[in-house]
Amino acid sequence: IYWSRHNKVTTETWNLCRYEYRWADGVQIKKPIEVSAPKYVEFLMDWIEGQLDDESIFPQKLGTPFPPNFKEVVKTIFKRLFRVYAHIYHSSFQKIVSLKEEAHLNTCFKHFILFTTEFGLIDKKELAPLQELIESIIPY
Amino acid sequence: MESEMADAAPAPAVAAAATAEPLAAVAEEGEEGGEAAVGSTLTMERVAAAKKFIENHYRSQMKNIQERKERRFRLERQLESSQVPREQQINLLKDLERKETEYMRLKRHKICVDDFELLTIIGRGAFGEVRLCREKTSSNIYAMKKLKKSDMVVRGQVEHVRAERNLLAEVASHCIVKLYYSFQDSEYLYLIMEYLPGGDIMTLLMREDTLTEHVARFYIAETILAIESIHKHNYIHRDIKPDNLLLDKNGHMKLSDFGLCKPIDCSKLSTLNEDEPMGDDNLRESMDIDSSFSETTNGRRWRSQHEQLQHWQMNRRKLAFSTVGTPDYIAPEVLLKKGYGMECDWWSLGAIMYEMLVGYPPFYSDDPITTCRKIVHWRNHLKFPEDSKVSPEARDLICRLLCDVDHRIGSAGADQIKAHPWFRGVAWEKLYEMEAAFKPQVNDELDTQNFMKFEEMDNAPTRTGSGPSRKMMLNSKDLSFVGYTYKNFDAVKGLKHSDQQRNQSLIRPSIGSIFGPADMDPSREPNGRDKHMHTVSSGDPMIQ
């Protein structure tokens, strides 16, 4: 129930408010809070780093098994990373171009999309905000 | 889980507070829609760092894929030409696959100084130190070279550090010290290298004073192969000296930069120029510094070889513990800051050869500036002591190495030097296979008796948290060191066969021994026999 409400709220906020997102990681911040895009990215990167460093999710020792919910954890990471790409392309792309970084951004995004598609890590409906761009990478 | 996050929360929060403002500024500029200002200085620094990071990431990825294919191809090609039974061929290919998997895992491991147990210090310089260490997971013994980032940047050594790391990572040669890992944290760069317990030529000379021509010939020959090896990869060492010539436990020499690139104070060299006459004033100044200097009965200013050697030995010991380098082995064109080429390394070889046979460097002085002046005016200062017993052939070779860059032997390649009469009888292809001319005493793998003793000065480095260390990757200081991390394929040991028992009667080739010949200097392959057929062994190549 919590997660369902979380996703619903996030989706609504995303559509309604161009520069505001609600962040909740379910641990430190249980209720979604309003944050600016840079702070959202900051929270997200910190959270992902915590996931990667958590050996109960990403084991370091040879032979240690991965947890049963490993794929779900990875999918959540990729879903949230996709939102960062969506934000950059929708709201900051001209800035990226003026900084002459668009080739770097496009390379990373292409790699990201090919990887997620190969392993089915993001649901198709989640990819809707960048549909046209993705079709130029992977023609349907 | 929850408590762990609670503990971790404060640091990211502080980092978030510190970094949120610049990001907000960027966003605000974006919102305004104006493109008048491209970005603040901090923004531009971060953009440059991000670009470099991304470019390096994909370049490394492509290179790793290519190298993996090459290893597979090399193994398959060697198996075809070998007499190994098909079943064993399949096993060897599976071994390689397992090793590749372990290597990928190793590369993803966030290596840091905590992965090593720090042991004895064996070297120290202006920018850091070298010490023995043991990798905790494998128990392998390595030499850890640690360099302070801020010092590297301030003293303009970034390019040197990168060149050294690149050389060690690219030149896979038995003449060169092997690099296993390189990594960094917020304060330091680290190079994890092969530990060579035999010491170096400097400590050997400190014990022996001089070498016989037989011993000197052996080490000069091995040094020629090492220099040839790096020249073939378009590297110029530029700072070859006795303490960069390391000895393994069997006495064979490997080239390194263990000297930690002790800087020569360049500000004082600005007055040095080729046209400045070496007048009596300069000579007198030098004599004043050297208070023990006195004219000999025959009126010449040279002391006897023995006295000069004793004086150099005292001075050398002082130099070895200092953080200021000696210019004794540096070519004149390097000192004069003209363009220089690979020939400068052959000059260094000549200076080392002179020292091996005479007992002290050819342009020795108490004062580094005077040494530099002597080098620049080598025509007036290259002399052999009267009581020297150096053979005519050795003198001739030294004089051809310590001369004008235009006439220096070796300018047409190492073969030019190998052909010199002093090397008559040298079996160049077998130098590293035969018994070394000198056998160092090494009692165990942790033995450091062949190195000078250094005292501990700093506390052991403490690891910075993984969170902040990642964010700090985008500081301008770290921009200089993007792409520094490296892990050598040979750091992964070959796996034992599960069916070793069944093949007990056969000499079983291992991946290491099959790859062994390929690791040798390519220039040796045309001359040598098929080494694969003669180096097959069941021993673990990592155990020396």
Automatic annotation (TrEMBL), chain A:
What is the name listed in the Swiss-Prot or TrEMBL entry for this protein?
Os08g0163200 protein
> SUPFAM superfamilies this protein is in?
Mob1/phocein
Q: What is the lineage of its organism?
A: Eukaryota, Viridiplantae, Streptophyta, Embryophyta, Tracheophyta
Q: Which Pfam families match?
A: Mob1_phocein (PF03637)
This protein's species is Oryza sativa subsp. japonica (Rice)
One GO BP annotation here? signal transduction
**TM region(s), chain numbering:** none
| Superkingdom classification of source | Eukaryota
Which residue positions does the secretion signal occupy? none
Q: Which InterPro entries match?
A: MOB_kinase_act_fam, MOB_kinase_act_sf
TrEMBL record, chain B:
The answer to keyword Kinase applying to this record is yes
Task: Domain (Protein kinase): give its ranges.
Answer: 116-423
Q: Segment Disordered: which positions?
A: 497-544
The residue ranges flagged as biased composition, category Basic and acidic residues, are 521-530
Against InterPro entries, the record matches this protein to:
AGC-kinase_C, Kinase-like_dom_sf, MobB_NdrA/B/Cbk1, Pkinase_C, Prot_kinase_dom, Protein_kinase_ATP_BS, Rho-assoc_Ser/Thr_Kinase, Ser/Thr_kinase_AS
Q: Which branch of life, at top level?
A: Eukaryota
Keywords assigned by UniProt?
Answer: ATP-binding, Kinase, Nucleotide-binding, Phosphoprotein, Serine/threonine-protein kinase, Transferase
Q: List, alphabetically, the SUPFAM superfamilies matched.
A: Protein kinase-like (PK-like)
**Enzyme Commission code:** 2.7.11.1
In its keyword annotation, does this UniProt entry include GTP-binding? Answer: no
Q: Extract one GO cellular component term from the record.
A: cytoplasm
The residue stretches assigned to a coiled coil in this entry are none
Identify a single GO molecular function assigned to this protein. protein serine/threonine kinase activity
Q: Which residues bind ATP?
A: 145
Q: According to its UniProt record, which reaction does this protein catalyse?
A: L-seryl-[protein] + ATP = O-phospho-L-seryl-[protein] + ADP + H(+); L-threonyl-[protein] + ATP = O-phospho-L-threonyl-[protein] + ADP + H(+)
Domain spans labelled AGC-kinase C-terminal:
424-496
GO biological process, alphabetically ordered: intracellular signal transduction
> Member of which family?
Belongs to the protein kinase superfamily. AGC Ser/Thr protein kinase family.
Name recorded for this polypeptide: non-specific serine/threonine protein kinase
UniProt organism field: Oryza sativa subsp. japonica
